[in-house]
Specification:
Elements: E1 2-7, H1 19-22, H2 27-41, E2 44-49, H3 53-63, E3 70-74, H4 83-91, E4 96-100, E5 122-125, H5 129-147
Parallel strand pairs: 1-2, 1-3, 3-4, 4-5
Length: 150
């Protein structure tokens, strides 16, 4: 099982960006925790981070040509306005789980709506690094459910 973890705009600044909201874990530390969990679950993960919306769209398009069974995405602020990323995710036939380190529903009003949600299997928010780990577990569960026709 191959899972792609997508990190969006400004997420390379984890650990330095508002630690009271996001925690002190850096993006490499988050990826390391995900890789550890992936080994435990017997799956393979790959990672991609960009601050450029077009690069994110192109990476998502590439999923359709690769042996990727699931996607976990934290699109950062793009979550709330990027119809380009939403349209790209809609093309993906693998389950997609949206994650956020902070509780977006307890923040500014513009963060309460996700334009990505309609094309994602589900969303997890507010648990810092654990949001990513729960997202990985969730996408694996969805894939297993698909393969067993559950």
């Amino acid at each position: 099982m191959n899972i792609l973890i997508l990190h969006g705009v400004n997420l390379n600044m984890f650990g330095r960006r508002d630690p009271s909201r996001y925690g002190k874990a850096t993006l490499p530390e988050i990826n390391s925790r995900l890789a550890d969990l992936a080994r435990e679950l017997g799956v393979t993960v790959s990672f991609f981070q960009t601050n450029h919306e077009g690069e994110m769209v192109e990476r998502i398009h590439a999923v359709t040509e690769e042996n990727i069974q699931g996607v976990v995405i934290n699109a950062g602020a793009w979550t709330h306005y990027s119809y380009a990323i939403m349209d790209a995710l809609a093309i993906v036939r693998a389950p997609v789980v949206e994650v956020h380190m902070s509780n977006v529903h307890a923040r500014e009003a513009f963060r309460h709506k996700s334009v990505l949600a309609p094309v994602c299997a589900g969303s997890i928010a507010g648990f810092r690094v654990e949001s990513y780990l729960l997202g990985l577990r969730a996408v694996c569960g969805l894939i297993e459910g698909i393969s067993m026709n559950v």
